[in-house]
Design brief:
The complex is a heterodimer of chains A (450) and B (474).
Chain A: H1 3-17, E1 21-37, E2 40-58, E3 61-68, H2 72-88, H3 121-136, E4 141-157, E5 162-179, E6 182-190, H4 198-211, E7 216-217, E8 221-227, H5 229-242, H6 245-250, E9 270-273, E10 294-299, E11 302-303, H7 310-316, E12 324-328, E13 332-335, E14 340-342, H8 349-356, E15 359-372, E16 377-390, E17 393-399, E18 402-406, H9 407-412, E19 414-426, E20 429-446
Parallel strand pairs in A: 7-17, 8-15, 14-20
Antiparallel strand pairs in A: 1-2, 1-4, 2-3, 4-5, 5-6, 8-20, 9-10, 9-14, 10-11, 12-13, 15-16, 16-17, 16-18, 18-20, 19-20
Helix pairs in contact in A: 1-2, 3-4
Chain B: H1 2-14, E1 19-35, E2 38-39, E3 42-56, E4 59-65, H2 70-87, E5 104-109, H3 120-132, H4 136-139, E6 142-161, E7 166-184, E8 188-199, H5 204-208, H6 210-227, E9 229-230, E10 235-240, H7 242-254, H8 259-262, E11 291-293, E12 316-320, E13 323-324, H9 331-337, E14 345-346, E15 355-356, E16 360-363, H10 370-375, E17 379-383, E18 386-391, E19 397-402, E20 405-409, E21 412-418, E22 421-425, H11 426-430, E23 433-436, E24 441-449, E25 454-462, E26 465-471
Parallel strand pairs in B: 5-7, 9-21, 10-17, 16-25
Antiparallel strand pairs in B: 1-2, 1-3, 1-6, 3-4, 6-7, 7-8, 10-26, 11-12, 11-16, 12-13, 14-15, 17-20, 18-19, 19-22, 20-21, 23-26, 24-25
Helix pairs in contact in B: 1-2, 3-6
The chains are: A alpha+beta (450), B alpha+beta (474).
Chain lengths: 450, 474
C-alpha cells in the first residue's frame, strides 16, 4: 500500500472508530550516510523507512501514535488501542480543533534535486574532496559525516486538508585535527548540489585546526566575544525552540510570559521560515495540514509570537504558524521551528575582528546545559578553534574554556552581526539555522580549577 | 519473523561477504502525562524493522528497513553490499572483528506484571497520586509548572550472524520523568528534572514510592529557594552525594574509556578521549576510586545479557584503585587493539548500528558511613544533587552545578547554599578523592551518542565520596 493510501485509510478508520477529528501523515525517507574518521571511511549506512503518524482529537481528549511499520493493519491496530484509551481518559482543559481545509499549497522552490538520491559512489568522492581540502590546509586527520536524504510526505486530515510534498538534503560535517587539541570544524548543508560546497567545509575545518596549533589554557573572566556562526546557531536555535508554545507550556523556556517585551538587542531579528526557497527544512504544509509560512519570532529585539499548533492556539490564543509536526514529546504533534533565520547585520565578517579589537573569537561549542530553562542560566563547552584576539588579530589559540552565562543576557548584549550568513545544521544543532557571526559583550568564561 | 533474519544473513552470505549480521526489533511503547494536573495526549509507539551489517574486504556497511517484504529485504542487503564496496577505496586499515564465541541464547528482563497489561486508569491514577502530593500545603512551595510522565516499552529482538550466533532478547522497561519548577516570591525559580527507570514490569514502581519521592524533591526545591545562601568559592573539602558520584562516573570514566572514542571513531560527534590505547595502567585517581560498568545487574535500566553483536555481557572494571584497568570494547575496537570484546555493543533500534555504550556505570563502595564522610570536614560543602553539567569532548574538563547543597561546618551539615560550581579536570577530580561511602544508589538516564543519535537507557551511580582541597568556582 502506498503512503497516500495509508493516510486515507487512517483518517477514514479514525472517524469510523468515533474520533472527532483525525490527522494522519506518512513520511517515506531514504537516507544514506558515510561516516569517516582518521581519514578513513568507518561505515556506510542507509535507511529506507516509511513512518505513519496519527493524531486523534475528540472534544477535550487527544491521542497520538507513531508506527514505524508501513503495514496499514498495524496502524489500525494501534489506532484502535488509542481510541480505547481515549474513551476512558479524562481529557484536557481545552477543545482543540484541527485547521479547516481545504488549503492550497504552493511548492517551495529549490527544495528538490533529483541528482542527490542517485549518488552512491559519488558520495565517496565528496568525502575524499572534503578530506583533501582539510589536509591541504595543514590538518593531519579528519573525521565527519556526509548524509543524503530524499523524503516524501503525505498529510491528510478529516477536516479537509490534504497535501503532499517532497525534498532532498545533503549535509556534511567535517572536523579536522592538527593535534589532539588543535581542531576545527566545517559544515555544508543544502537541498541541492548547486548550493553544496564540501571543499569550503573541508578548507574551513583545516584552516581553523592549523590556526589552533599549540593552544594554551585560557583564563576565566568576562570577555567581549566574536562568536562564529556555529555557536550562534546553537544559542539562537534554542531560542527558536523556546518560542515553541510547547516548551512555554512546559515551563521549559526563558520566553515564558514575554510576548511584546524586549528580549534581545534591537539588532536581533529571528524568524522561522518554513517556506524559504532552498531552506534546509522547507516544505509546503505541516502535519496538521496547515500551510507553512514565515513567522517573525523576535523583531528587532521584541518577542513577537510563539510558534503554534492547533492545540496551543486553543489553549493560549494566537494564530497558527504552520509549525505543527509530530515530534513525540508529551503533546504528540507540537509546534517546532523549521528553518531558523537570523537577519544579517551591517558589518562584513572580516571587519568584525577589527570591531572586536581585544577579546575572544570562539568558533564552536557543544554540550550546552541549563541550570534553569526559565532563567536561562547555562554553560557550554568551547570546542575546536578558540582564539585570543588583540587589536583585531589572532594573538594566540586557547583551550580549556567554557561559556558560563545567561542566555537572555546574551541576547541583550549582541552588538554586531555580520552581513554574511551560513546554514548550520549538525549533531549539536538539529534544526537548521541560517546565521551570521556576532559580537557579544561581557561573556562569562570559566575553566577548570584543578 | 526470525526466518526473515536468517533469510537476510543467508542472502548476504551468498554474495560472498566476509561477515554479515541481521537484527530484528519489534518494539512497542506508551506514555501518559499529567501537565499541571491536566492529562496530555496518550501516546503509543510501535516499531518493527530489520537492520543488516556487512563486512566486505575490510569495509563496513549498515542498512535498515521497516518494509519487511522479501523484495525490500533483498534491496536493503544489496544496497549495503554496494555501499560497502563503493566505500572500500577510502577505507584505510581494513576493518576487522575480534574472534568471539558464537552463542545461541535467549535472555529476558522479566516483568512480573507486564506494563502492557496495566489499565490506563491505573497509570493515570499513579500520576494523580504524585500530583496530589505536590500540593502547596504539603510541599511548602509554589510549583507553577509540573510535568509528570510515565513511560514503558517492550522490546523483542532477534540477532543472527554468519558465524552461527543466534540471540533472542526481550526487554521490558518502565520509567517516570518529572519536571518541576518551584517559585518563591522574591526568590525566583528553581527547576528539577528527575528520572527513574528500570527493566521489569509494573512491580518495579513499588520500590520507588514515586509519590513520596517526587514530593520530597519538591519540598527540597522550596528549601533551596527560601534558605539558600551564596556558595563559597574558596578551596575547601567537598562531599558529593550519590547522584553526583553517578554522573561523574558516567561522564569522566565511562565515556573516555569507550574504545571507539579512544581510537577516534566518534571524533566528529561525541568526541574523543583524553586516554590513549596504551594508557591501561595509567593512574588517574587515588586508591579509593574503583569504577565498574555492569550490564548484568537484574532490573537495572541498562540491563542486557548479550550485546548487539551476540557477545555475552559481563562486568567491566574500568578504574581499579585509581588506575585505568580496562576499556569498553565492541568487536571492531577489540580486534584493532588485540583483545576480546567485553560485550559493550548496543543499538537502541533496528535502524541503528551497534556502537560501544555504557550500561550501568558506578563507583564501588568504600568503608565510610555518610556521617563519617561529613564529620572529618571542618570547612566544606556537601553537594547532594546537581542540575547543570557538562564535559569537554575529550572528557577531561567537567562541570557540575549543585542543586541541593549545604555548607559543612565543624563536621556538621549546616546552611543550604545555592548553585555551587565544581569545575575540574578528570585527574584533578579522581586524584582528590580521599574517602568513599558505603551505600550505593543508582540513577536512570538516557545517554546520547552516535550519528544518527542513539539515546541508550543506562544507570549510573555510586556512594557518596569526599574530595580534599578543591576550589569551587563558576
Amino acid at each position: 500500500m502506498n503512503p497516500e493510501q495509508i493516510v486515507t485509510e487512517a483518517v477514514d478508520y479514525g472517524i469510523k472508530l468515533g474520533a472527532g477529528e483525525v490527522a494522519a501523515a506518512v513520511t517515506h525517507e531514504k537516507r544514506k550516510m558515510l561516516r569517516f574518521a582518521n581519514n578513513s571511511i568507518t561505515v556506510a549506512q542507509s535507511w529506507d523507512q516509511i513512518v505513519p503518524t496519527v493524531y486523534m482529537v475528540s472534544k477535550r481528549k487527544r491521542a497520538a501514535a507513531r508506527v514505524e511499520d508501513p503495514n496499514v493493519d498495524s496502524l489500525k491496530e494501534v489506532m484502535k488501542s488509542l481510541k480505547a484509551v481515549m474513551d476512558i481518559s479524562k481529557g484536557g482543559e481545552v477543545e482543540p480543533s484541527l485547521p479547516k481545509g481545504p488549503f492550497s499549497y504552493t511548492p517551495v522552490p529549490k527544495t528538490y534535486d533529483g541528482r542527490i538520491p542517485q549518488m552512491t559512489a559519488e558520495l565517496v568522492d565528496v568525502v575524499e574532496e572534503t578530506m583533501n581540502s582539510a589536509l591541504a590546509e595543514g590538518a593531519k586527520r579528519t573525521s565527519g559525516t556526509l548524509v543524503t536524504s530524499e523524503w516524501e510526505r503525505y498529510v491528510k486530515t478529516s477536516t479537509g486538508a490534504e497535501g503532499t510534498d517532497k525534498g532532498t538534503n545533503i549535509d556534511l560535517t567535517v572536523r579536522a585535527f592538527l593535534t589532539d587539541d588543535s581542531s576545527g570544524q566545517g559544515i555544508s548543508c543544502a537541498t541541492r548540489l548547486d548550493d553544496f560546497n564540501p571543499k569550503l567545509a573541508g578548507t574551513t575545518a583545516g584552516r581553523i585546526a592549523s590556526q589552533a596549533k599549540n593552544p594554551v589554557f585560557g583564563e576565566e573572566g568576562r570577555y567581549r566575544v566574536l562568536f562564529g556562526p556555529t555557536i550562534m546557531a546553537d544559542l539562537l536555535g534554542r531560542i527558536a525552540d523556546f518560542a515553541s508554545a510547547y516548551y512555554v507550556d512546559l515551563g521549559l523556556s526563558c520566553l515564558v510570559g514575554k510576548i511584546g517585551q524586549k528580549v534581545a538587542s534591537e539588532k536581533l531579528t529571528i524568524a522561522d521560515d518554513g517556506r524559504m526557497a532552498g531552506g534546509i527544512n522547507s516544505c509546503s504544509l505541516d502535519e496538521e495540514g496547515y500551510p507553512t509560512q514565515r513567522t517573525t519570532i523576535i523583531d528587532h529585539g521584541i518577542l513577537n509570537t510563539y510558534l503554534h499548533s492547533s492545540y496551543s492556539v486553543a489553549k493560549y490564543g494566537g494564530t497558527l504558524t504552520g509549525s505543527a509536526f509530530f515530534v513525540g514529546g508529551t503533546w504528540g504533534i507540537a509546534p517546532v521551528p523549521m528553518n531558523v533565520i537570523v537577519e544579517p547585520g551591517d558589518c562584513r565578517e572580516d571587519q568584525l575582528f577589527g570591531q572586536l579589537g581585544d577579546g575572544l573569537y570562539l568558533t564552536n561549542n557543544w554540550y550546552t546545559r541549563f541550570q534553569n530553562y526559565q532563567t536561562g542560566d547555562f554553560s557550554s563547552i568551547c570546542r575546536d578553534g578558540a582564539f585570543q584576539i588583540k587589536n583585531g588579530k589572532i594573538e594566540r589559540p586557547l583551550k580549556g574554556l567554557r561559556i558560563s552565562d545567561n542566555l537572555p543576557r546574551i541576547l541583550q548584549s549582541i552588538t554586531s552581526l555580520s552581513t554574511e550568513r551560513t546554514w548550520i545544521k549538525w549533531w549539536e544543532v538539529p534544526t537548521p539555522v541560517y546565521v551570521p557571526h556576532a559580537i557579544v559583550e561581557d561573556i562569562g568564561i570559566t575553566r577548570a580549577t584543578k | 519473523m526470525e526466518d526473515l533474519v536468517h533469510y537476510l544473513v543467508e542472502f548476504a552470505s551468498a554474495k560472498g561477504v566476509d561477515y554479515a549480521e541481521a537484527r530484528l526489533h519489534v518494539d512497542a511503547g506508551s506514555g501518559v502525562t499529567l501537565n499541571n494536573g491536566i492529562p496530555e495526549p496518550i501516546q503509543l509507539a510501535k516499531v518493527k524493522g530489520i537492520g543488516i551489517r556487512l563486512l566486505i574486504d575490510g569495509a563496513m556497511s549498515f542498512a535498515s528497513t521497516n518494509d519487511l517484504s522479501k523484495e525490500s529485504l533483498r534491496e536493503t542487503a544489496e544496497h549495503a553490499y554496494r555501499t560497502a564496496k563503493a566505500s572500500k577505496r577510502l577505507v584505510g586499515s581494513p576493518i576487522r572483528l575480534s574472534q568471539e564465541k558464537s552463542e545461541e541464547a535467549r535472555w529476558e528482563a522479566k516483568a512480573q506484571r507486564p506494563v502492557q497489561d496495566v489499565p490506563i486508569e491505573e497509570k493515570f491514577a499513579l500520576l494523580e497520586e504524585i500530583e496530589k502530593n505536590l500540593r502547596p500545603d504539603i510541599v511548602k512551595v509554589g510549583l507553577p509548572s509540573r510535568t509528570l510522565v510515565l513511560f514503558d516499552d517492550l522490546s523483542e529482538r532477534y540477532f543472527a550472524n554468519t558465524e552461527g550466533a543466534r540471540i533472542r532478547g526481550i526487554v521490558s522497561r518502565i520509567g517516570i520523568l518529572y519536571v518541576l519548577t518551584a517559585s518563591e516570591p522574591g526568590k525566583g525559580t528553581v527547576q528539577r528534572i528527575g528520572q527513574h527507570g528500570e527493566t521489569g514490569g509494573w512491580e518495579r514502581l513499588d520500590a520507588w514510592n514515586a509519590p513520596r519521592l517526587v514530593s520530597e524533591e519538591a519540598s527540597t526545591l522550596g528549601k533551596v529557594l527560601r534558605e539558600g545562601k551564596h556558595a563559597p568559592r574558596e578551596e575547601l573539602d567537598l562531599v558529593l552525594g550519590q547522584e553526583v558520584t553517578g554522573i561523574i562516573c558516567h561522564e569522566s570514566c565511562g565515556h573516555p574509556q569507550e574504545a571507539d572514542r579512544i581510537l577516534g571513531r566518534e571524533a566528529a560527534q561525541a568526541g574523543e578521549s583524553y586516554l590513549k590505547p596504551d594508557m591501561i595502567g595509567y593512574r588517574v585517581g587515588t586508591e579509593a576510586v574503583t569504577i565498574v560498568d555492569d550490564p548484568t545487574i537484574p532490573n537495572s535500566n541498562g540491563f542486557y545479557l548479550y550485546d548487539e553483536e551476540g557477545v555475552k555481557a559481563r562486568r567491566r572494571t574500568l578504574i581499579k584503585e585509581g588506575v585505568i584497568a580496562d576499556f569498553l570494547y565492541n568487536r571492531e575496537t577489540a580486534a584493532e587493539l588485540g583483545v576480546n570484546s567485553n560485550g559493550a555493543a548496543r543499538a537502541v533500534s533496528y535502524d541503528r548500528e551497534p556502537i560501544i555504550r555504557m550500561a550501568n556505570t558506578f563507583m564501588l563502595p568504600g568503608n565510610y558511613t555518610d556521617e563519617e564522610l561529613i564529620e572529618d570536614v571542618k570547612n566544606g560543602v556537601f553537594i547532594k544533587t546537581f542540575m547543570e553539567w557538562n564535559i569537554d569532548d575529550r572528557r577531561y574538563n567537567q562541570r557540575y552545578v549543585g542543586l541541593e547543597a549545604y555548607l559543612i561546618e565543624k563536621g556538621e551539615i549546616s546552611t543550604p547554599v545555592t548553585s555551587p560550581v565544581l569545575e575540574i579536570t578528570t585527574p584533578g577530580l579522581y586524584g582528590s578523592v580521599d574517602a568513599v561511602g558505603r551505600d550505593v544508589r543508582f540513577e536512570a538516564a538516557t545517554c546520547g551518542k552516535g550519528e544518527p543519535d542513539q539515546g541508550a537507557p543506562v544507570w549510573h551511580g555510586g556512594p557518596a565520596m569526599r574530595l580534599k582541597r578543591v576550589k569551587l568556582g563558576g
